[in-house]
Amino acid sequence: MADTFINNPSFFKLDATLKKLRNYWQKMFDSRQMDITVDQWLLVENLYKHKKTTHNELARNTSKDITTISRIIELLVKKGLVKREADIYDRRKVYLQLTPDGTEKYKQVKPLVHEMRKTGWKSLTEADYAELTRILDTIYGNIPTKI
Amino acid sequence: MADTFINNPSFFKLDATLKKLRNYWQKMFDSRQMDITVDQWLLVENLYKHKKTTHNELARNTSKDITTISRIIELLVKKGLVKREADIYDRRKVYLQLTPDGTEKYKQVKPLVHEMRKTGWKSLTEADYAELTRILDTIYGNIPTKI
DNA sequence: GTAAAATAGTTGCTATAACAACTGTTGCTA
DNA sequence: TAGCAACAGTTGTTATAGCAACTATTTTAC
C-alpha cells in the first residue's frame, strides 16, 4: 500500500542522524581541546553573525527555548566568551555579544566545523541538499504550531 | 561556488525539525492525557515489537545511550508499564517486557501516533520518503564512528 | 492616569543525553 | 584455575529541553 512512509520511523531516523552528528562534533571538539559544547558553539556562531542580540532573538534564531538560551549564555559568560549589556531605554532587555575571547574562539573552531560539514556531505550533491531542505521544510510546515 | 550546502546549517535544520516534531508529539500526548513522554513512547513501541529484550538491545534499536535506557526504563517500571525479569543463565542480564498495562498503553497511543505521522508527511510522497531516507543514511554513513 | 496585559528574562523542576566510574557476573587465557 | 578482560547494568555529574511560576519592567486599555 501507499503508506510505507507513514508507518516508518522517520522520527527515529532524524533523531539517530542528529545524535550521531552531535556526538561526532562533540568528540572532535574535545579531541582538539576546543573546550566548548555543540550547543554553546551554535550560540557563539550566531552571536558572531549578529554581533549584538537579545536572548529572545537568539532563541528564535537557534530554535531553542529561551530558558535554554538563558542557561547556555550563563555558561558562556562564565567562560568569558560572551558579555551582557543592559539596554538603556528598556531595562528589561539585555544585549548579548561576544567578547574578544569569544571572537577568538569562533575563529578557532570555525575551520573544524567547516571540515566536519564537508565530511557529513561527502558524496552528496547540491541537489541533495536542496531536496533535504525541501522535505524538512515541508515537514516543519506541516506541524501545527498550536494544537 | 559549489559549496552552498557545506556552508549552510543543515545541522540546525535537522535539529529544528526534530524539536518541532517532538514538541508536537508531546503536546498531543499531554492534551489526550496519555501520561507518557515521546522517548518513553519510543521504548514502549520497541518493546511491543520485540516482546522481550535487554537494555543493550533496546539501546541499539533506539539509538539511545544505555544509561538513558536504564533511566527511562526505571520510569516505565514505576508507571507499571514495563517489568524486569532476570535471566536464569546469565545473572548479568535483565529481560524487559511490557506488562498488560504497557500493552494497553501501546494500543491506546498507537492510533494517535499514526495520525501524527500522517500529519507530518502531508503533501509529501513515497518518493520523498525514499529521498529523505537515502540522504540521511548517507550522512549517517559519512560520519566516522571512531575519531 | 491607573489597572491589566504584554514583554524580557530567571529559577525550579523533571526528562533526556552522554561520559566516567562503579558493581557484579561471565568468559578467556596462560 | 587464578587472574584478567569483557560484558550487563547502575549511579554520579554536567549539559540541553521545555513547562510553570516568578520578578521586573513596559505597553495597552479604559
Automatic annotation (TrEMBL), chains A, B:
InterPro entries: HTH_MarR-typ (IPR000835), Tscrpt_reg_MarR-type_CS (IPR023187), WH-like_DNA-bd_sf (IPR036388), WH_DNA-bd_sf (IPR036390). The keyword Transcription regulation applies. SUPFAM superfamilies: Winged helix' DNA-binding domain. Residues 7-141 form the HTH marR-type domain. SMART domains: HTH_MARR (SM00347). One of its GO terms (molecular function) is DNA binding. Pfam families: MarR. The keyword Cell membrane does not apply. Keywords: DNA-binding, Transcription, Transcription regulation. PANTHER family: TRANSCRIPTIONAL REGULATOR, MARR, TRANSCRIPTIONAL REPRESSOR OF EMRAB OPERON. This is Winged helix DNA-binding protein.
